[in-house]
Amino acid sequence: MGKIVFTCECGKSVSVDRKFAGRHGRCPRCNAVVQIPVDGAKVQQGATHTPAPAANRATPPIAPQAINTSAAEVLPTRMRANRLIAGKLCSICQTRTVAGDEVRNCEHCRSSFHATCWQEAEGCGTYGCRNSPAAAKADANREPRAHGNPRAPGAPIEGLAEATRAVPLAPTRPSFRRSRPAWVVLIAAGIAVLGGIAFLALRNGGLRAKLADCSSRHGIEVRVYYDSYISTSDVVFDLRGVEGTSVRRIDPVHLLFQFGQLLDKRATRRLILARDGRKLMYLRSTDLTELANEYTHGNPVWSFNQLPERLKTMSGDNAYPTWEGGWIGVLKEQSEDLNRFISDWTGY
Question: Of all helices (H) and strands (E), which one includes residue 295?
Fold first, then answer.
């Protein structure tokens, strides 16, 4: 018994026995129900092609032994979009194909396009495909290679001397573009420095105003400022020097107590004594309050004698010893410690 060979809408070539002529079966590729043509009939493109509904799953399929599956499953170059192609994106017009559209299939990359898009683009729209217009133009412009008369070993390459000849460079104008970032950085740094100076001047203005109200300030150069850029709990009393011969050795201590009396003791944690910017020792707020009050309202000499043993080094140790015993002996040792303190702090 002979065979009937026909092509499904999806492009699959199917071969069945003649005994199935006129019957319905399913395509082995797209699973659609197709009618097997009678002997000598030709299946026209666009013929009725009904997908198998869910209720007709029991339709007897074409016998597997009657299907020739050895044929290459390659879509024809021109066809109508079926369920395999419908919904795919045409990369030329960037729109999706619809079932029934006339499509052009590339035989090299197997991509599908609208037939009109293929014609307008003059080829495949897949980059690098041999059917793409760019590949066709490259093949057309490619010069033929000379396979005969190869260059002998050691022979000079024609045109190499001209290609490698040194060409003098044209003089270039100096560019100032690279120097602009440096100027920008310098200007930004200058603005930041000026802003910091202005900030510190405003921030420490209240301390300088208190120092200006002290009666012993004349002839003594002192700078007062906060020790931290954020906190105001530590105040620095920085002695820079004296002017003239009328300033006594004890006058910087007078100025220290007068300034300490004007400070806000609740907001101040430490009063740091410094010399030319170098921090030497400090007074705690509680000791400063007691000594400054006694200096202002009581006995200044007692505050002078008590000052050295109340001082702490910057590491927190006692700067000078604490004395006990008879009051005459203690007073003598305190007076000597006061002289040492003045020498250590003022330098004279």
Answer: helix 285-297
Q: What is the chain's Cα-based Rg? A: 52
Dihedral angle computed from the Cα positions of residues 46, 52, 53 and 56, in that order, rounded to the nearest 10 degrees: 130
The DSSP annotation for 257-290 comes to HHHHHHS-TTT-SEEEEEETTEEEEEEEHHHHHH
Contact criterion met (CB below 8 Å) for 92 and 117: yes
Domains and their CATH numbers in the chain: 1-72 (no CATH), 74-136 (3.30.40.10), 200-346 (no CATH)
pLDDT in tens, 262-293: 998 888 999 999 999 999 999 999 999 999 99
Answer with the residue of higher pLDDT: 301 or 163. Answer: 301
Q: Report pLDDT for 186.
A: 84
| 52 within 8 A of 32, measured Cβ to Cβ | yes
The H-assigned helical ranges of 83-213 are 115-121, 133-141, 160-163, 179-203, 205-212
Euclidean distance between CA atoms 113 and 103, whole angstroms: 6
CA atoms within 13 A on the CB side of 27: 24
Q: What is the pLDDT of residues 308-320, one digit of tens each?
A: 999 999 999 999 9
Position 43 confidence tier, pLDDT thresholds 50, 70, 90: very low
Distance CA 286, CA 293 (A): 11
Task: Indicate the helix (H) or strand (E) that contains 327.
Answer: helix 327-346
Q: Tell me the pLDDT band of 155, cut-offs 50, 70 and 90.
A: low
